[in-house]
Amino acid sequence: MKTFRSDFLWGGATAANQYEGGWDEDGKGPSVADMCTNGSHTSPKRITASFEEGVLYPSREATDFYHHYEEDIRLFAEMGFKCFRLSIAWTRIFPTGMEEEPNEAGLAFYDKVFDQCKKYKIEPLVTISHYEMPYALVEKYNGWESRECIDCFLNYCKVIFDRYQNKVTYWLTFNEINTGTMPMGSVLSLGTVKGYTGTMIGFPDKPQVRFQALHHQFVASAKAVKLAHEQYPQFLMGNMIAFITSYPFTCNPDDMLEAQKKMQMNNWFCSDVQVRGAYPFYAERYFEENHIHISMEPEDEQILKEGTVDFYTFSYYMSNCVAKAPDEKDKIGGNLIGGLKNPYLKASDWGWQIDPKGLRYTLNEIYDRYRIPMMVVENGLGAYDKEGEDGIVHDTYRIDYLREHIKQMKEAVADGVDLMGYTPWGCIDLVSASTGEMAKRYGFIFVDKYDDGTGTLARKKKESFGWYQKVIASNGEDLE
């Protein structure tokens, strides 16, 4: 039976805005994430149009990779990482996004990071834009609503491609680009929040603005891929989707059709554009029914066709159920969007349903549709972690979660899926993107940092650290 390939990219995933810190050091400018306050799963975080005194903005220090990168990468190497997924902070390279020349101090920082990875033979997997953009572009252009952002993004790509052409092979253009199909994507991804102070949940949604902004991201992504293919043939360019697997709540045909519709617009829409190079047929009716008109330049369709990605990556945390008439059903939370409670599944502390077999199902569905190499670049369990009497976090619940998902990845590989790697989310504790809290921890490494902003930032291995070390050493065979 097939198992993981010998060059399988085991590792872990982070994002600059949730992990890096140093938000105003060495010339870095403010990003959208730097303007987001802390929150919890019961009290949503806010974005503020200006800095508010006495309010905690957790991404500004996060868990301080900026000053701990050597120690952290050494710990990742000790676990046996073959791959480290990280993002470059756009505002560390171009503080407002509009400068003609890049910030050399920012470029030099990532040189040091990539050199440290090379020292330990760890392959960087770099997300170019991961839930942050220069806040100056929000103030001037309302973020991605304006086509001006395309040229700003391409200028950024040209600089980092040229600078790191001998240090980075694997690139992802936009993190979870399909958040743009959802209202909260306006804050997380699109930056269409000019002048707004409030929560992501309370944001006044404008689908026309959102999908126009998403189109501009599609064009920017395709142009970046095209640039890489033409000038840096050694690069492999990927997309990144937040895959939210939806099951029909019952076998009622209405529920079946509703689940199909959710899968199309939440999951397939963006990757159909990025992998197949064109808007899918089902988008036409959705746009018509929601009064959305996408303004395109004459060359846009050709650009999308020429800028398709080489491999497909996605996040998978959970699944949910969908019904045509959900009012009387039990609702649950989830990654980006919630759904209906599946009676066959358990849930995490945050109410996210745990569905390892759903990962196998999802891998098969994606590979059947696109037939290009795939990578699971986010997967993990957010939980309350506490030290035991021996001073160690015994996160057996996290080990159980990851073990079962890796087993189902093995099954998918046996099914014939071309899976190239696995980077669990938050391999070291960091700030939650959705809630802005530290209490929701994912890492194999505990960071002494708390929701009130206190903490020494000291690193400590959790029990899962040694377990994952064995998994990597055995190429996924030793899961006990």
Q: Which descriptor suits the 3D outline? A: globular
**What value does the average pLDDT take?**
96
Low-pLDDT windows of residues: none
Percent in helix = 25-40%
How many distinct beta strands? Answer: 18
Q: Output the strand order for the largest sheet.
A: 1-3-4-5-7-9-15-16
Q: Helices and strands: which structural class? A: alpha/beta
Give the amount of beta strand, in percent: 5-15%
Query: Mind summarizing the main beta sheet?
Result: 8 strands, parallel, barrel
Roughly how many Å apart are the termini? 20 Å
- What is the gyration radius calculated from CA atoms? 21 Å
Q: What's the total helix number?
A: 14
Note down, in words, how this protein is organized.
Helices cover 37% and strands 14% of the residues. It is of the alpha/beta class and 480 residues long. The strands form 6 sheets. The protein has an 8-stranded parallel beta barrel, surrounded by 4 helices. The protein has a two-stranded antiparallel sheet with strand order 2-6. Helix 6 (148-163) packs parallel to helix 8 (207-231), helix 8 (207-231) packs across helix 11 (300-306) and helix 12 (356-370) packs parallel to helix 13. The radius of gyration is 21 Å and the shape is globular. The relative contact order is 0.14.
